[in-house]
UniProtKB/TrEMBL annotation:
It comes from Haloferax elongans ATCC BAA-1513. SUPFAM superfamilies: RmlC-like cupins. Residues 37-109 form the Cupin type-2 domain. This is Polyketide synthase curC. InterPro entries: Cupin_2, RmlC-like_jellyroll, RmlC_Cupin_sf. Transmembrane segments: none annotated. Gene3D superfamilies: Jelly Rolls. It comes from the Archaea. Pfam families: Cupin_2 (PF07883).
């Protein structure tokens, strides 16, 4: 058996990101699920690019603020306590708009935990 407790604030943020990212699942030793804590100020985006995952299902649970998620069909507004789920092969870009009054804080969960699974999506290619 194995158990771990991770204090989010004790995990160092990932460098060179447009928003604060703490890989709390990696810190806890999670191998089958990716679990990340994000905090984005107004004008910051969550991922590094508009993207989709080839295998991974991704979910964003909003802890505070409002998350905006752009997709090819529409832009979703996800309030605090809300959940947004993107199936594999579903392009999305999560962000906090520049005119937002507050930061947005969320947990991002992806499964399976695969690396190199994200692919850039360019809406102009459609």
């Amino acid at each position: 058996m194995g158990y771990r407790v991770v204090e989010t604030d004790d995990v160092e943020p990932v460098a060179d990101r447009s928003s604060e990212l703490r890989r709390i699942g990696v810190e806890a030793g999670a191998e089958n699920v990716a679990l990340n804590h994000f905090r984005a100020a107004p004008g910051e985006q969550i991922p590094l690019m508009y993207h989709y995952h080839t295998e991974q299902e991704e979910a964003f649970y909003v802890l505070s603020g409002t998350l905006f998620v752009e997709t090819p069909e529409e832009t979703f507004e996800v309030p605090s306590g809300g959940l947004f789920v993107a199936d594999p092969e579903s392009p999305h870009r999560a962000y906090n708009p520049s005119d937002a009054a507050d930061p947005v804080e969320l947990l991002a969960v992806g499964a399976p935990a695969v690396t190199g699974d994200a692919a850039r999506y360019d809406p102009d290619d459609e």
